[in-house]
Specification:
32 strands, 6 domains, globular
Length: 812
Amino acid sequence: MIRYWLKQDALNIAVILYQDGLGLPNVDMETMTINIESRVAFLVSAYLAYSGETKDAREGLERVVELRDECSSVFVPSLTLYYSYIDDIRLHGFSNTEPLMLDCIFVHTVPMFVDSGSCRPVLEVLCNGEKVELKAQYTDIRDPKFTSFNSKDEIMVFESLNALLWGDVVITCCHVRHGFVKQEANRINRQAPEKARRSQLEKVPIFRICFHTGFLSRGGQMQRLKKEDLDFACEYSNNPASHNNMVALSSEFKVDLILAPASEEKSAEVQMENRPGVEDFIFPSDFSGLIGMSEMHTVRPSNEYLFLLSEYLRLQREQNPKRADVNEKVRAWVLKRCNNRLDPAISLLEKMPQLHDELVRMEDRLYIMGFPWKYGKTPKNKGMEDAIRKLREEMGEKFLVWNLSGEDKFDYSTLDHQVVSYDLDESIPGLSLMLKLCHGMRYWLSLDKQHVVVLLYNEYEDLSKRRYMLLNGRTRAALVYSCFKALDQFNKDLEMFGSAMSPNNDASRVSAQAALDDFAMKRNISRDEIDDMRTKPSFKRLVNDFDVNIKAGLFNTKPLVLHRLFLHRSNQGVQDTNSNLIFEVMVDARTQREVKGCRPIMEIHNNSNLVYSTLRAGIAPVFVDSREGEVIKFHFTGSDGRAGVTVLGDVTITCYHVVLKKDLLEESLPGLGDAEYNDETVDKDIIFRYTFNTGFVHPGPFRLHRSDLDILPAALVPPDMTVDVVANESSEVVDKFEEEELSLIFRCDNCLQDLSALHAIDPDPRLVEVLEERDVPPKVAAFALQRTNNDVERAYQIHTLFKEEDEEEGGE
C-alpha cells in the first residue's frame, strides 16, 4: 500500500502514526513481545529493503534506528526469520502458494520445571490471526485424553492435528502450572477460586514458532527447528534453578513439524471462504495496493454518491465511447479521499492515473496490461483477475496476447493459452526483431476487423538484472508500442497516399520518438522516466534507426567484416577506481605486489547468435594492469579460421571482465578450450555493450565514445574512453536484404510462421496431417489448431481466416 501511494504522485508522502514517542526498538525477553517502535522499525525497514532503497532489511533497520550497536537487541528468532523473509521475497519470491496441512508435531526432550515433576503441554495454532481448531486433548486439560509427560519420556508427540495452514502461522506450546489446574477444578466444582499469586495462574510458554507458508516447500515435508530457532526456548538454560521462570530445556531440545499437502477440498475451502491466500501477497500490484488502502480507510463511501458517480461516468461514456470504464473500487476510493464530496471526487477521478495492472486501451484495437510476476509463477492478484475478466467479456475469442517478457513464461490457462512470447531479455532488441514483432501485430489485426492485440509486460523489476543492463517490462512495452505506432501509421499513410508517402520521401511525419511521448501520456509515466529511457544509448539508437528506416531507408545493404577492436584508455597510469577499468585486485606471483586491472574478453552476437567469443577462440583472458598499456587490442577470427567476422543485420558487441569462479583454480584447468573455459567456469561483469544494425553503418573504421556505449552507471570506466572498430565491406552478395530483412511491409507467410513458432500451444502433428488431408496448408493448419487449443473441427472452420498470400503493397 505504501508503494502504491508513493508512486501515484511525486508529491505524495506517507506518515506512520503510533501512540508512543520514537524510542529504540526492543523486545521483552520474558514475553517475547516487541514494542510499538519495533513494529514501526520493521515496517519501514521492510519497505526500504523491498523497494531497493537498502541492500537488505538489516541495513534498513540500521537506517531507521540510526544506532548500529542497538540493532541486535531487536532480533529474536521469529523476528529474525521475518527480516530474512523480506530479503528472500525480493530476491527469490515465494516458493509455495498452496495451503499446507499440519499433521504432527514432535518435541524432542521434555522440559523440566522446579515446581512440577511433569510437563502438561497445551497447543495453540493461529493462522492469519485466526485460531485453528485442534483436538481437545491438545488444548484442554479437562479432556480425558489429555496427556502429561515426565523426564523419563524422550519425546512429546502431537499427532493427527489436521490443521490447515496458509499465510502467517503462529504455533505456541505452553506448560499448564499446578495452580491453573487447581483453579479449573474449583471452577468445575463451582467452588470459589483460591486467591493465588499471579505466577500460579499463568501458563508457562515452552516455545513459539512463527513462519509463513509461502517460504516452505511444496508438498509433504519435515521442518526441524532447533532450540536457538524457537521463541522462549532460546532463552531457557539447561539448569532450571538458574532461570527466573524455573524452567529448563536441554541444549538438544528441538521441534519437528510434519507437513502434508492440503487436499483439493481443503484448498477449495480456503478460496470459497474468501480467506487471504498466499497469492495475494506474492508481488505488489497497483490494484491490490488501492484496494488495501480503500478497505482500511476510515471514511465509508456514501451509497448515494456512489450511484451519482457511476451515472456521471455512464453519461461520459455515452458522449465518448472510447472513454475507459472506471472500476467500482476506484470510484469508492476517490469518494473516501474526498470525504464524500462529489465534485472534488469527480475532479480527482479525472486526474487519477489508470492502474498499471488494468487493461488499458492505447489505440482502437491495441491494449496494454502489466502485472508483476517472477520465476515462472502465474501472477495472481485482484488486478489481473479484473483485467482478464474484462478481456474475456469484451473481446471474446478475438484477442491475442504478446508477452514481451517471454523469457519468464507462466501458466497461460487464464488467457486461454492465446499468447505469443517474445524473449526480449538480451539487452536492447535489434531492429530486425522489432520489425518482425510489429509485423506480426499488424498481420493479426489485418485478419479480422474485430481482432485485438494485447501487450503484456512484467511490472516486476528484478534488481539483480540491472547489472546486465536489461530492459524492464515497462521500457519494453514503451519500445514496442512506439515502434508499432510509427510503422502502423506509415502503412496507413502509404495505403492512402501511395508513392507520395514512400520510405524515401521526407514528407513522412511518422516518428517512434513522438510515439514515446504518447505512451507516457496514456500510461501516466513521468517525463523523467521517459527521458531515462531515451538516455540509454542502444535504446536511443534503435528508435532513431527505426525512424530513419521509415523515412530514408538503409545506408548499407551489404555485410560488414569486423577485423579488430581497439579499446583506448586515455588516462593511463591513474589508479583512481572510478576511472581506469579496475575490476579486480590481485597479487603478482612474481613480484608479490598488488596489481589492479581487469581481464577483458569480447563477444559478438549477430541476430541473437553468438558468432565470436574470445573464450571459444581458445584465447586466454589476459590480466591487464591498469598502469600499463593505454590500448587493449582484440583481433577477430571467424569460425572457419579466416581473419575477420562477417555480420549482417543486428549486431551486439560486448566487452566483459571475467574471473574464475571461486570453486575453481586457474592451475586446475588443463586448457582453454570450449569445454574447459566457458560460461560454466567464469563469472562475467560487463565493461561495455554496443548494439547496431549493419544497414545504418557505413563500411570502414568507426570510433565510439563513452556516450555511444551501454555502461552501468557505477562501472569503473574512464570518462574519456574510446573504442575503435576496424570494419570493411564484405564481398559476399546478399539478395534482397532490404526487402526481406528490414522491409516496412509485412509478408503474410513469414508472419504466420513466426506467430505459430512463438505460440504457447504446440499443434498436434497428427491433427495437422488430418487438416492437410482436407486441403489445408500446413502452416495454416498449425496456427488454426493453436488458436483452437487443438480442436480439429473448430480449426477447420476458422482456417480460411489465416492467409498466406502477401497483401498488396499499395502505391508501390
